[in-house]
């Protein structure tokens, strides 16, 4: 493996660095974007039950707010529940924008890695081919070993760049879709809470 990396030239270093960063982001996002961490099961139902029972204290509300992204959204609405439906919706939307920003953390970096690693591989290809043509100019076409070395460098960097870019792009799209799904579900839960509190629907 080391020999393969070495034969790819110095451009293998930024490609390897990109692969390490991409793997770290993918692992971190898998842990962070788990549904149970974003949308705890039955949280909205539990909150509505506490409101009906009159047991929702400031301490519990603070714990709900810090417990999960959905909890933060619900808590922002509950804090303003005495100011009417519109104020609740505005505060929920404002908190929701902050939550979305948190959920999308590092995704731009992952998308950038998916975009630049093929370019790094292409640059390696160009550098390798320049070496090939330079050796042809100096030595002619009589030394196949020199030609093979330049072509090998070109192919290795291209393959390495694509090897990093393809999974990075796949996971970038996957996490974007996952964030959209979580945001939609949180919006549904928040509207459910507002409707129940306004008496427009029954708690379920």
Description:
- The protein has 204 residues and is mainly alpha-helical.
- It has one domain.
- It has helices at 2-7, 12-32, 35-38, 43-53, 58-67, 69-79, 85-103, 107-139, 144-198.
- It is rod-shaped.
Task: Summarize this entry quickly.
By secondary structure, the protein is mostly helical.
What labels would you give this structure?
single chain; 204 residues; mainly alpha; 9 helices; rod-shaped
Q: What's the rounded overall pLDDT mean?
A: 85
Largest sheet data: none
Strand content: under 5%
Number of domains: 1
Give helix % range: over 70%
Query: What class do helices, strands and sheet pairing give?
Result: mainly alpha
| Radius of gyration (Å) | 27 Å
Count of helical stretches: 9
The general outline is rod-shaped
> SSE string, helix = H, strand = E?
HHHHHHHHH
Alpha-carbon distance between the termini?
A: 57 Å
Total strand segments:
0
Uncertain spans, ≥5 residues at pLDDT below 50? Answer: none
How does the SSE layout of this entry go?
Layout: H1 2-7, H2 12-32, H3 35-38, H4 43-53, H5 58-67, H6 69-79, H7 85-103, H8 107-139, H9 144-198
């Amino acid at each position: 493996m080391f020999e393969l990396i070495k034969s790819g030239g110095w451009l293998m270093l930024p490609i390897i660095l990109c692969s390490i960063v991409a793997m770290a982001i993918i692992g971190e996002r898998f842990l962070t974007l788990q549904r149970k961490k974003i949308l705890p099961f039955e949280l909205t139902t539990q909150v509505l039950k506490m409101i009906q029972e009159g047991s929702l204290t400031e301490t519990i509300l603070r714990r709900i707010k810090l417990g999960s992204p959905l909890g933060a959204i619900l808590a922002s609405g509950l804090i303003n529940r005495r100011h009417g439906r519109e104020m609740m919706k505005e505060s929920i939307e404002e908190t929701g924008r902050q939550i979305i920003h948190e959920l999308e953390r590092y995704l731009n970096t992952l998308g950038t890695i998916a975009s630049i690693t093929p370019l790094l591989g292409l640059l390696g290809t160009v550098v390798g081919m320049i070496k090939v043509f330079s050796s042809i100019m100096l030595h002619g076409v009589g030394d196949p070993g020199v030609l093979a070395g330049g072509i090998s460098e070109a192919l290795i960097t291209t393959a390495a760049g694509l090897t990093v870019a393809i999974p990075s792009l796949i996971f970038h799209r996957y996490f974007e879709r996952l964030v959209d799904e979580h945001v939609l579900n949180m919006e549904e839960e928040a509207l459910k809470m507002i409707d129940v509190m306004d008496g427009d629907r029954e708690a379920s």
